[in-house]
Every structure is written in C-alpha cells, then in structure tokens.
Amino acid sequence: MAAFRGILAIGIWFLCIPFSVYCLPDTTVVCKICNGINFSYRTPFRQEMNSVLNELGSVIPYSYNLYAQSTNSGQGCYGHAACDGRLSHFDCDLCLQNERGDLLNGCSSKTGRKCSL
C-alpha cells in the first residue's frame, strides 16, 4: 500500500509540473529585393547606413514600428522596421538581428533593400 501511495504521489507531482514549449521564430526570407545602385564601403553612406541600422536595432524590439534616418554627412539614409505586434520583444529582436546580418551579406553594397521575413 505504501508503494502505491509513493507511485501515486510521484505521478501527481509530474502532472503538476508546468509544461512549456520554447521555439525560435521562423526567420525564413519570404521576399527580398535589392536595388541596382552600388556604393563603396569607404563612403559616408556606409556610416549613415550603420547609424540607421543601429537605431532600428536598439528601439524596434520595444516599439514594433519605427522609421529612422541619418543625414549627418549630407547623404541621407532612411530605414523602416516593423514587427507584428503578436511577436514577443525577444522574437522581434531576433528577427531584426537575422535580417541585419542578411542585409549586410545579401545586399552588401546596394543602397536599397526591401525584405519580409
């Protein structure tokens, strides 16, 4: 009888453990368009682009929709990032980090890009 109670207590304990599922968001690129205008890496535009990407990356996980611009050197660079409001801040940030890496690798010397994940 004591063995049965022990097994029953262990069974109830396992049923009381909260079950949670953790998964990463799907960051598959759905649509990517790069324009045909190239720029050199050692130009002010590259600095402007990095400034815009840094601003978008630091704020978008908390606002879900942001426009940023940088015109410090006279060459304007504009950016827009938006996350679906159903995403958590963590998932939004992760998607934006993945997109930034893909932007710098996939359209590295292009002045414009549109992408959807």
UniProtKB/TrEMBL annotation:
Transferase as UniProt keyword: no
Domain Gnk2-homologous, chain residue ranges per copy: 27-117
Keywords: Repeat, Signal
Pfam families: Stress-antifung (PF01657)
Signal sequence region: 1-23
InterPro entries documented for this protein: GNK2 (IPR002902), GNK2_sf (IPR038408)
Protein name listed in UniProt: Gnk2-homologous domain-containing protein
